[in-house]
Every structure is written in structure tokens, then in C-alpha cells.
Amino acid sequence: xxALNLTNSSNLVLILDxxxxxxxxxxxxxxxxxxxxxxxxxxxxxxxxxxxxPRVIILSGGPHSVHSADSPPTFPDxxxxxxxxxxxxxxxxxxxxxxxxxxxxxxVKVGIAQEYGRMEISVERGGGLFEAAxxxxxxxxxxxxxxxxxxxxxxxTARSQQGSVAAIESPERRLYGLQYHPxxxxxxxxxxxxxxxxxxxxxxxxDWKMQDVMEEEIKVIKDMVGPDDHVICALSGGVxxxxxxxxxxxxxxxxxxxxxVDNGLLRYKERERVMSTFQSDLHLPVTCVDxxxxxxxxxxxxxxxxxxxxxxxxxxxxxxxxxAHKLEQKLGERPGFLVQxxxxxxxIESCPPPGSGKTHSHTIKSHHNVGGxxxxxxxxxxxxxxxxxxxxxxxxxxxxxxxxxxxxxxxxPGPGLAVRVLGDVTEGNALDILRQVDEIFxxxxxxxxxxxxxxxxxxxxxxxxxxxxQGDQRTHSYVVAxxxxxxxxxxxADWYYFEHKFxxxxxxxxxxxxxxxxxxxxxxxxxxxxxxxxx
Length: 535
Description:
By secondary structure, the protein is α/β, with parallel strands linked by helices. Helices cover 32% and strands 24% of the residues. It contains 15 helices and 18 strands. It has helices spanning 23-31, 46-50, 79-85, 95-103, 190-201, 210-224, 239-252, 270-282, 292-299, 305-331, 344-349, 390-399, 404-407, 430-447, 500-513, and strands spanning 13-17, 37-41, 56-59, 89-93, 107-123, 136-149, 155-160, 165-170, 175-178, 231-235, 256-262, 286-290, 337-339, 380-382, 456-470, 473-486, 494-495, 517-522. The strands form 3 sheets. Strands 2-1-3-4-9-8-7-5-6 form a 9-stranded mixed sheet, sandwiched between helices. The protein has a 5-stranded parallel sheet with strand order 12-11-10-13-14, sandwiched between helices. Strands 15, 16, 17 and 18 form a 4-stranded mixed sheet that branches. β16 (473-486) and β17 (494-495) form a beta hairpin. α6 crosses α12. Residues 355-372 have low confidence and may be disordered.
């Protein structure tokens, strides 16, 4: 499938993920320095690492203990010889530091005083990760184990207030370690440390630009798709698929055939609004297929969210295959490729954590772009955005002249309202109620000038009835929840703080305008522990 040709990058920073909730932030922070970074499982085979030809490798944190009897995850055999013989710099963060220490003959034990949260560290030696001795920094710690004996060639460069090792270095072997998390905002000077490590210690060049990504992707797509091949693109109405379609259209022109499927799970007047934008602003050739009955029939009686996602993914592919068959009759040649706007967070969330011994069935949730597609699909996938975060896709969209209104659209899940109606989506008039509530909520956000300050906002239909009083009469109607979050990439998120008057106005408007609703609640949970979507 089409993706960035990473082997062409001489400055790739590869993160080996050992299960930290912050691993994706390391990738994000490094990319913000105009350096290409990629994250793969820390237990990947050595061949997967060497094939990417990294300049720098970062070992992430993780919830494991290196001296656990449960076979904690580790880098593959031959890893240390590979990095030494190829002059690759390595930085271990938290668990990654402890892994380096243990594997090289040092000792890691359960700390006498465990360290969690904000702590102050003192720099004992400068010149490497830190500029000068004597510096003091506030950092974010999250560890119960500590390095108590360092391998030969290492020295301590910083300690915590409690005297524990906070940073180590072995410049001759190009091995470094931080016991704290520099990637989180709770470590105010963490970015300064990462910048110093990459540019001064490792000599990396910050030359990765979104313009280069666009040009490289166009080349990859042209190489993958033959000169006479035709391609189908599934448009959802969101920024991801719109940018993916525009990119592929620039690569192969009119051999791209776009399809927009009304699956009966769209928002209020979404079909009319999106088709108008496609035709008037994006100038893409789009065929609209009304498959509402097909999807809703398959979903009748289904309450499990994973089953919903699998059904929806399968039905989409059936429709795409049928569309490809009709194009074959028209063109005399069957399209062989399908474009999807899969993003990096989709890929990360659909994979199990290293060391868990788990498979896809234990993931946070299957994204229909990743884990929800049938294995016998006849179309080959083109996923030009699968290594990009949402804000990077928006940057790419602007370079491709995708209209700003489209670029700024809030994310919308592939399964649509199926994952915002808890339980059976076909029961009663749940979908109609949700559409009306969601429209009131989003329009109120836009009227208040808040839309661009929020990463994602939506309503959720709860299959719960509560007692109320409306018009001096007792009612027994449904509850709806409002969800709005801020985020940089969708991997973590904080709930958005609305003024009380705004919430009061919205709740009144919903209860007065939408028949069947008598109670409105707000979701004030961050991610983690919750996901952004409810299902």
C-alpha cells in the first residue's frame, strides 16, 4: 500500500514503543522540529529496524519492569551490536533507560522512594543532554524502578531531589538515557533537551517539510498505480478523505473515481452539504450512492460496538466492489485500488501494546480503515496519509489548496452515528433525535465563535429514559450527552470548558426543540481514561 518511502530519509528518528501512553507524543514532538519520526513496536524484529535505516533510535517508556518474571518486552537480539556498528545514537526514556542499563550489565531495582509526577532534577554534568552543570529543571517522573548500578562507560549527568538517577550518558558509545518524560508539557524544558539531543548530540538536520511529503507521496502513488490503472476513493465528507483524494487526483488525474456513500448514519443534511462542497469547491468527480437501507438492515439488533464497526467496514467494501464492477463495465477495465484517509492515530490505536501478548481483538477499538476491513477484499489499498497526524494532514491540505472550511472540519468517525447511538441504531427514532441534537449543538458552537478552538464536538444518544416535566405534564424521554474536546492529534484529549450560560442555552434549546429528549448531560472526561468517541 502507498506510504512514505522512509528509506530515503537520512535523518529518520525511529521510536521503539514499549507501551508508554506518551510514546506518540515523542513522535509528535520530534516532527514539530521538522525531523521525520516513526513509531514501531519495541519488540519488532531486527530486520524491521534495519530496513528503515534510522539515524537515531529512541526507546520509549512503558508500564513494565525490566526485572519482572513475566518476560518484559525488549529490543531484538543483535540490536546493540547493530546500533554500535552503524554509529546510531540511542536515547532511552524511563523504561527505555532501564532496559539499556540492564542489557549492558548494570542493575535496576525497585526504588526505595518511587517517583511519580512533577519533580526537580539537578544537572551534574553538562556538554551532552544538558548545557551546563548546576542547572535545575522541573520534570515529569513516572517510575517505580531505578538504576542503581550503571554499566561500564556510563556516567550520571542528572539526579532527582531524592538522589535517584535522572539522566545517564555514554558518549563514546552514543548511548543516552532520561529517567523522566521530556515529551510531556509537564517537563517545561523537555523540548529543549530533545532539541539539544537531536541537533547537537546527534547532528540531525531539521529538513523534513510537508511540501516534501506531498511530492514524495505523489511519486509513491504514481509508482504504485500503473499508467492505465483506475482508482476508487471513498469520500466521507471529512478532511482526511478529502486531502487523500486531492493528493491522488494530483498524481493520476481523471483515473480517480470518487464515491460518497450515504449509509444512513450521516449527520443532519450531511449528504446535501458534502456533495455541494465536493462539486463546487474541490472539483472532484463524485458519485453518490444511497445505501441507507443496506447498512441499517445489517445493523438491526446489533449492540456491540466492535460488531457494528466490522459490519460497517464489510458493507463499505461490498459497495466499493459493486462500484468497481460498474466502472469496469463503463471503462472496460476494473479499478484495482481503493484510497482511504487512514491516519497514524488510527494505526496506533488499532494495534495492541508491546508485551501484552494480545492481538487485534484486544485493541482499544478497531478503526474500520484499519481493523474493520475484510481479509478477502479485492481492492488494493492506497493510504497516503497513514503516517501523518491530523494537524499534519491539515497542513498538507492547505498546500494542496483544499478549501479552508474543509480543512478545519472536526473529525467524524468512519462508522458515523453508529458509534454515537449507544446500542441498536435502528431502534425507534434514535438516529433522527441524535441528528437534531447534534445540529443544535454544533451550530451553537459556531454561533459562539468556538468551533475552531475545539478539536471535536458531537452529541451522543443514550438508550436511557428519564422522568421529566414538560408543559405541566410528566414525560419519560431520552437522555443525550454533549462531548467537546481539545487535542493536538486525537491521541490524548481534554474536555472543553464551556461557560455555564452557553450550556444552559444549548440544553434549553435541545429540550424545547427536539421531541423525545428531556435531559442533557455533558461528558467531562479526558482521554485517557476515556476515548473521544463513546464507542
